[in-house]
Amino acid sequence: MSETHATIRSGAPVFPPGRYGRRREPGRRRPVLAGLLALALAAVLGLVTVRLYQQYGDPEYDATVITYTGITDTQVLVDFRVTVPPGGSAVCVLRARDRAGAEVAREQVTVTARPGERHVTTQHRLATSGRAFIGEVLRCRPPT
Q: Which domains, ranges and CATH numbers included, belong to the chain?
């Protein structure tokens, strides 16, 4: 025999008493705690963003490889152009890789612009431990 309760809306499921355990009461919401956690997360993400931008994203120090030539078993000549603040200098990391992608040379080069100039075009010879396939500029940053 089934029970019909007068207080239950039509269409709502009726569970036999004791069969499925006690129904939970709706939990109390804590909007202040959720807001504080969201604010703390936003602050941490903001700090990480600023730190990564300072480390990798300075647009004043931009390098472009023009060409790499003079490839032998012991060297590669890398021509590159660096954008720096007017009259400033930069420390650039150059590397050469072989055909398989292994690094065969890495060197730091300091370039300095003439007073009032923002661009420095230079050529640097990288001494390699094997035959290079490509010469590249990994990054440029302010001198420390």
A: 62-141 (2.60.40.3230)
